[in-house]
Amino acid sequence: MTRRRKAAWLLLAVVAGTVASLSGCSNLGYYWQSANGHLDLMRSARPVPQWLADPATSAALRDKLALTQRMRRFAVTELGLPDNASYTEYADLHRGAAVWNVVAAPPYSLKLKTWCFPVAGCVGYRGYYRDADALAEAEVQRAEGFEAGVYPVPAYSTLGWLNWAGGDPLLSTFIGYPEGELARLMFHELAHQVLYVPGDTAFNESYATAVERIGGARWLATEASEAARSEYAQFDQRRQQFRQLTLETRQQLEAIYDASDAMDASPAGDRDRQALDARKKAALDDFRARYAALRAGWSGPQQGAYDRWVARANNAMFGAQAVYDDLVPAFEALFEREGRDWRRFHAAAAKLAALPRNEREEALKNMTQQNGKPGV
Fold first, then answer.
1. Within 13 A of 125's CA, how many CA atoms are on the CB side?
2. What's the DSSP call for residue 86?
3. CA pseudo-torsion sign 225, 230, 233, 235
4. Could you tell me the pTM of the whole model?
5. Residue 5 to residue 43: CA distance in whole angstroms
6. How far is CA 276 from the centre of its chain?
7. Under 8 Å between Cβ of 213 and 325
8. d(CA 259, CA 279)
9. 83-107 in b/e burial notation, b at 16+ Cβ within 10 A?
10. Is 346 within 8 Å of 210 (Cβ atoms)?
11. Which among 4, 85, 100, 339 is placed 20 to 30 Å from 302, CA to CA?
């Protein structure tokens, strides 16, 4: 039995044992699919040099794999990210996503429902290796009274826990990304191996998103071709416009939902609820109308990149996006405060992570105000 196979089965045994002892039979099926899904992913991976030497590997894939190794080295030497087994192997998954995440939120709140797991703590999503399983879970959440959403995830981090078993491989689900997007994704996932706070999804994702944005900009400025920079600039302009639109819509919805607690105690509760629903619908209709106008000004093959997201937009989807965006300005301010020195920045973020949650949130709020710009 190979080292990888031994490691895989050991992982499976550990996860299954943890589930049996901590979660009870009701969650055993979910943990089993998680363990088995990751094992299948690991079994599909081969070292990058093998893919490069294989005559069956296409020229396009060979070029992208070589590019990722340059990016990985850049992440280590320039961004202070870890030098380990991650992204030294590649797996063709023959599907459109690594996992599909399910998110859920109440009808009058953008606060995500959380699920709690060993190691990761409580997070605002639940991941599945089959889209059908994710869609079924979303239906369960709707039956419980939540708004739910499902979105594809091209990559995820094992937080450095499995570097002894081969680490996180490059995947077919993102290897075809344009250069700027590929760099950002790799930097984001490697950042999770530097710092992860169990149970604080907003902190973790905003920190990693800040690393990807700042690091990705540096890669493009110093390592990429003019064509790659131009391609990235066009897409990023659209992304910034879309994020600004969704930020403004989140703020509208939050203002509407602030009134819902008072309505619960109102003698005219049903009438108030109808008014609340009408205001909510108007905000979502306005969001879709403004998106249509924004989209009309775009052109090219990625003109409809956000169409599916917009069509399914609800509290859960807006809440999930907020997790990735809202604290990013605080980390950008922290990077500037630390003299744009990566090692000092990572160390300062680790100090924030060690604070009690309320103190950490207050410190990040103050830094966001100092930055003076919203999380887009």
1. 25
2. T
3. negative
4. 0.87
5. 8
6. 31
7. no
8. 11
9. ebbbbbbbbebeeebbbbbbbbbbe
10. no
11. 100
Give the C-alpha separation, 197 to 178, whole Å: 30
The helix (run of H) or strand (run of E) holding residue 176 is none
Q: Could you tell me if 34 and 120 are in contact, meaning their C-beta atoms sit under 8 angstroms apart?
A: no
How far is the C-alpha of 224 from the C-alpha of 74, rounded, in Å?
12
Ranges assigned E (strand) in 106-190: 115-117, 121-123, 126-128, 147-153, 170-171
How far apart CA 173 and CA 181 sit, in angstroms, is 13
- Across 270-281, b (16+ Cβ under 10 Å) vs e yields eebbeebeebbe
The residues near 355 (Cβ < 8 Å, ≥ 6 apart) are 363
Cβ-proximal residues to 27 (8 Å cutoff; 6+ apart), any chain? 19
- Tokens linked to 22: 């901590």
Tokens representing 269 are 């509760």
Distance CA 175, CA 168 (A): 13
Cα 74 from Cα 190, distance rounded (Å): 12
| Strand 99-105, strand 126-128: pairing | antiparallel
DSSP H/E element including 362: helix 357-371
Task: Give Cα separations from 160 to 5, 189, 208, 320 (angstroms).
Answer: 18, 10, 14, 24
Q: Is the dihedral of CA 58, 63, 66, 71 positive or negative?
A: negative
- The terminus-to-terminus CA distance of the chain in angstroms comes to 48
Q: Is 9 helix (H, G, I), strand (E, B) or coil?
A: helix
| Whole-angstrom distance, CA of residue 131 vs CA of residue 124 | 18
Share of the chain above pLDDT 70, in %: 88
- In this structure, what token pair is assigned to residue 1? 């039995």
Residue indicated by tokens 């997007």: 181
211 is written with which tokens? 């690393």
The answer to whether the beta carbons of residues 316 and 103 sit under 8 Å apart is: yes
User: What does the pLDDT look like over 340-364, one tens digit per residue?
Assistant: 999 999 999 999 999 999 999 999 9
Per residue in 252-297, pLDDT tens? 999 999 876 655 545 456 668 888 999 999 999 999 999 999 999 9
DSSP reduced 3-state for 47? strand
